[in-house]
Amino acid sequence: MAERLPVAVLGANGRMGSEAVTAVTxxxxxxxxxxxxxxxxxxxxxxxxxxxxxDLTVPDATEANVQFAVxxxxxxxxxTTGWTAERLARLEALLAQRPGIGVLIAPNxxxxxxxxxxxxxxxxxxxxxxxxxxxxxxxxxxxxSGTAVRTAQLIGAARAEAGVGPSPDATETQLDGARGAVVDxxxxxxxxxxxxxxxxxxxxxxxxxxxxxxxxxxxRASFMPGVLLGLRRVADHPGLTVGLDGYLDLxx
Length: 252
Description:
The chain is of the alpha/beta class. Helices cover 33% and strands 26% of the residues. The strands form two sheets. The protein has a six-stranded parallel beta sheet with strand order 2-1-3-4-5-11, sandwiched between helices.
């Protein structure tokens, strides 16, 4: 029998973290060696023999957690938001000093969501207009969601490469926020509503037609196959990877 991967979950007491604990425990090729909550020492993950961590903590803690992991030779799979361009640059510089260590930072671990974002970016080359609506539970602390930002960035890059101009918009006056945030030229609208988990629509429009690409997560268990995939592949992708699509052969 192949050796099981020793994994430590950070943020184990949170909604996502508790799901990750369950998923790693059930995975036949992994061993949960540490489940750390707020205030627990990261050293205990090392002492337990972890070779990879899953960081599902909070934006204020995630950079230090990942830095600790990299400096101590642990691979990291990260679902925590708050990774600005400056933070990513610091992490890349650190990883350059630790060849062989892999870090995956994924705005979304739901495989369907990752695929939907990739499909939307591909389709956006062929439509005059594109906007994003993301819908989440009211406990979500950031807006727009990391998934929506990532989707907008992929769409913006795809449209720029194809030479597609900005979506037409004749708005001259508006209340603040009425047209949403603008990420890489794409309008992004955030909804926070009781009863939702995580949902996103990409609306694409052209003369006489509309294409809607929608993904729905009804339970946080939907994110766990992506977390496990990340853990299984992170060692094969040294350096920094942003987006689970970097581990998938999408052929787009």
